[in-house]
Every structure is written in C-alpha cells, then in structure tokens.
Amino acid sequence: MKPAVTPIWRTVSGFWNIYSRVRKGVLGLALVLFFFAIAAFASYLSPFDPTKIDARRTWLPPNSLNWLGTDWFGHDIFSQMVYGTRVSLLVGVFATLISAVVGTLIGLFGGYYGKRFGEFLERVIDFFLVIPYLPLIIVLVAVVEAMEIPIPVLWVVIFVIGITGWSGTARVIRSQVLTVRERQFIDRARTAGAGDLRILTRHILPNVFPLVFANAVLTVAGAVLSEVTLDFLGLGDPTTVSWGMILHLALSNNAVYRDAWWWVISPGVAIILLVMGFTLIGYSIEEISNPRLRERKA
Amino acid sequence: MTALLQVNALKTFYRADGDYVKAVDDVSFHVDVGESLGLAGESGCGKTTVALSLMRLLPPNASILGGEILYDGQDIVKMSDRRLRRTRWKKISIVFQGAMNALNPVKRIVEQIAEPILLHEKIAKDEATRRAERLVELVGIDKSRARDYPHEFSGGMRQRVMIAMALACEPRLVILDEPTTALDVMTKMQIQQLVKDIQKEMSLSTILITHDLSVIAETCEKVAIMYAGKLVEHADVVTMFENPLHPYTSGLLKGFPNIHASRELPVSIPGSPPDLLHPPPGCRFAPRCPLASKECEVDPPGKTVDGNRYVACWKR
Question: Span B60-76, mean pLDDT?
Fold first, then answer.
C-alpha cells in the first residue's frame, strides 16, 4: 500500500536524482548557493563597514588587511563586494518575480483567448520584444525617480527591470498554452462544467509551470545584468553599495588609468560567476524537461 | 418503454469555403431508458458529429441547423448555456475518443474524477474525493492506485478512468465515442464487459459509437447505421445481423468474416463514400449500390418496417 500523500521530499529527491546528472547544472547551483550564502552572512563575512571612508588607506592593492584592496575613498573593496551581493540577488530575485508573474499572466491570456484579445496581447508581446530594453529602462528609471514617489530607488530599479523583462517569458508561455489549449482534456474539463478561469488555473497553468520556472531562472541572470548596468551608468542609488556602483566609482575615478586593476576585476568576476550560475541552472532545467536536448548516455 | 433521448431530423453542417459540409443530414433516432444503442458507420460518416451535437460540443465552424434533440422532453438544441452546463455530465456524459489525451497529465486521477462532482454538486472536497475513489473501484481499479498520475496507467486502465469520470455525476445517458479503439483484443473485451456490467447495474442508457460492428454485436441491443451523414438503418441488433435491410448494411456485414459460414473471403464495398460538400442527389449510397436503379435518384424516404425497424431505401 502506498502512502496516501507523496511526501514533498520524495518529489524533491526525485528531481535531484535527475538534476544531479547534469554536471553543469550542479556547478550552476553551487555558484548560486555560494552567492546566496555570502548575501545571508554578509555582516559576519565583511571585516569592515563597506561605507566607511578611511583617508589613510586609499589605492591599496590586495593586502593582508584588505583582501581585495581599497579604492580612492579608502573603502574596503572586499566588504563592498560582500554587501553588493545582497543588492544583486535582491534585484535579480524580485525583478524576476515581477516579470514571471506579468509574463505568465499575459502569456496565459494571450494564448487562451484566441480572437481579438489574444491578437492584441500578441502584438503587445511583440512590441516589448523588439523595443531596445536598456534605453527603455534608463528612461523609465529617470521618469519614475523624477516623480519623487517616496520609495527607495532600489525598489524603483526592481520595478522597472521587472516590468520590462517579461516579454520572453510571455512568448514562451503563450506558445505552450496554444498547444495545451487544443489538448482533449481541456474539452473534457469544459464539458464537465469547468469555466474559463478554472481551466486556466487548474488545467493549463500546471502544464506550463515547469516552463515558467525554467524561464524565470534565466530571467534572473538578465535582471542582475540590468541592475549592474543601471548602477554603472549612474542611474542607481548612490548610497547603496552594489557591484554596479563599485564599477561606476572605478570608472569615474580613472581606476584603469591608475592601474587599480583590483577595483575593476573583483566586481567583474563576481558578475560573470553569478550570471553564469543562473544561466547554467536555467539551461539544465531546459535540458531535463526537453528530452531532445538531453545528452545521450553512452 | 419511454424514450429518454429522442433525436428528430437533426442537421449539423460544417462551414467550409462558403459552402456546407453536410456531416449529419436529417438524422432521427431514439434511445429508451436502460437501452444501449450502437451507432456505426465508416470514418467520416458523421457518427462523432452526432455525438458532439448531442452534447453541443461542436467546433466553432459547425452548427446545428435544424431538428431537435429531446432529452426527457427538453430540447438540448434550444437550451440556454446555463441550463446546458447543468445538463452536460449531470444528465448526459461522454467518454471521449482516445482516452490517452483526455486526461490531464499533471493531475492525479482521483482529482480529475472528483472535478465534475465538485463542479456540479455542492459537497465538500473530501466527500467528492471519497466518491471518486469508489468510482475508481467500480471500474475495477485498485483503490491504492487512485492517487497515481495518468502516465502510470496502461491504455486500458486509462479508458477505465475515463469511464469512471463519465459516471461521476450519475448521469442517465452516457455516450461512448470509440471506447475500445486502439486497445488490444483482451483489454477491449474487458472494457466491453465493464460497460455492460455498469449499464445493467445502474440502468444506464448508452450510445456506443464505433466503426466496428463486432463491438456492437457484443454490447448493444439496438443498432443504427449511418452512411455519408444519413441514417440508413435502425433496428434490433439480432434482427439486423440476421436480416439486414439496407444494401449498405449488407455490404458492411459481408465485410467481415463469419465463423459459422463457409470459408468465404470478406467482400468489400466498391468505391468510396461521397464528398459531403457536394453529395450526390437522391440516395447517397446509390453510386456504390448493387441494387441502384432510376428511382434512387430521388432521396429515399425513411420507412418503418415490421413495426420497429427503420430503413431508408427504395428497394425495401
């Protein structure tokens, strides 16, 4: 006799059994968990206050006290890197949540309602797909900040990245909904008396959900990069410590010209590793759920 | 006996290129309480369209252009959407063609069986689940499998699940659209037996749609034969198999070997069914009919023979 309810850990361990076979996925997961750990224990890991200015210790290359050197202001770059991880993950996760929700809703409705409404949503998705998103984000951040809504700049950035980054998800979800919608169990459910809302939430959504998840993981990488770009261009909040802000200060203080390589390399490497981590997870999930991409075992 | 379902002069056409495909043209039949009717014919003769018309589940390019479908005296054709939603599944339910695709792959089967119960009756979720579990047992699946997913089931078991689902709201009429097609011989027999048992137990009326006359011979009391959108013959199973009246029916019966007769090879009917966009005038079977003559150029009227047999042919 089977247990009445399959315990959640069995589902998880079942997934892990498959997932752990994809080596690059394990690497990606390790990278992402590594950064999450740093963000969680930032206050224990950083030896200095990241915003503390020390005029006696400027332009120092990596040394025993400042592991990643110091900048022109005498900030400890290691501590700044540690705290910057928080910003990157915060923006990455929350902006992705917004994009995933918006993209899934628009994809669901656009795919389910075939006629005028679906066509209209399809055009909206196309519009957001072709629009160069970086200028759009820059303009939106500038506009929203100028409106002087009393919310932290960081959340403005999250909001703007979130509502501009959904088009890819929406398109993927929409095309999947188009095929699920034609499956016979949808007709069967409608015959049994299910309304549109119930069919969408109980029958179609569970069938496209793995796709939402795989897409979201890939979106995180894009969101992290967008946030770094905004900070680098000086559109972020100058008072928060983030990887993009470190790069921004490095640029405006001629770090490269003055051979302060440590000021540029640390954030650069961290960004690459974090984005790579999310991308590897995303591709691994895609590979697992799409048997055609699954590597043949010899 | 009283008719539970009475179909009168049903016309269901598909729109195609500004013209109409006359998929179901002037079809009338009835199903009594507790009776099992087999609806047979070649592919594309309109069997499934009849079934979909009865439930008003037609695709958007099809519509019922005439006739009435009386269930318990009420016309389904004219029913409001709200009434229709309450009738479907609760009074008439359907086992769709191809059970493999009619189950949601990501939901447990017990949830799927319970869904129509929850949608039609005001009862608590665990009560609906209990009823669904009883239905799972009724169709011969062990209760411990109720919480499995469709992919963990074989084709025959999935078909059983579909039958359980059709019975969920205790309907009085169940339409079975090709329930045993794509199943192996043994599974087919088991499903047929299951349908027969349940029918007897619940005094259910059934309409079984198939192209396989042997299935009808095994499970039905009455049989209706369709050809190119028309009903050509409607009779008792035994009478029809022993003494087919319509030449098309005779042709069909010659099409499969008889174990009691001498070793003759099955004979097929020459030609192919007409294009339903432009059916031939008069009897639609005439171009392939060995008995065709001048009078067959006019549509043959349906007539009742021997009290309760119906046939549409000039020669009878």
Answer: 91
Show which residues on chain B lie within 8 Å of chain A, measured between beta carbons.
55, 57, 85-86, 88-89, 93-94, 96, 98, 101-107, 115-116, 119-120, 144, 147, 165, 168
- Put simply, whether A194 touches B (Cβ < 8 Å) is yes
Contacts of A5 in chain B (CB under 8 A): 147
Q: Which of helix, strand or coil describes residue B248?
A: helix
CATH number at residue B213: 3.40.50.300
Task: Look at chain B and report how many structural domains it folds into.
Answer: 2
Edge to edge, the sheet with strand B92-95 lists B92-95, B173-177, B205-210, B36-40, B222-227, B230-236, B309-311, B303-305
**Contact with chain B for residue A6, Cβ under 8 A:** yes
pLDDT tens for B116-162 read 999 999 899 999 999 999 999 999 999 999 998 888 898 889 999 99
Report the alpha-carbon distance of residue B164 to residue B141 in Å, rounded.
Answer: 10
Decide if pLDDT at A278 tops 90: yes
Q: What is the pLDDT of residue A220?
A: 93
Q: For B82-114, write each residue's pLDDT tens digit.
A: 899 888 999 999 998 776 678 998 889 999 999
Taken in order B252, B257, B263, B265, the sign of the CA dihedral is positive
Domain range enclosing B141: 99-170
> Is A150 in the B-facing interface, judged by CB distances under 8 Å?
no
**Predicted ipTM?**
0.78
Nearest CA in chain A to B57: A191
B10 and B130 both lie in a single domain = no
Tell me the C-alpha distance between B112 and B281, whole Å: 47
Q: Are residues B105 and B211 in the same domain?
A: no
**What's the pTM value of the predicted model, to 2 decimals?**
0.80
- What is A21-49+64-289's CATH number? 1.10.3720.10
Predicted pLDDT at A35 = 96
The answer to whether position B316 is within a domain reads: no
CB contact under 8 A, A2 and B119: no
CA B253 to chain CA mean position, Å:
19
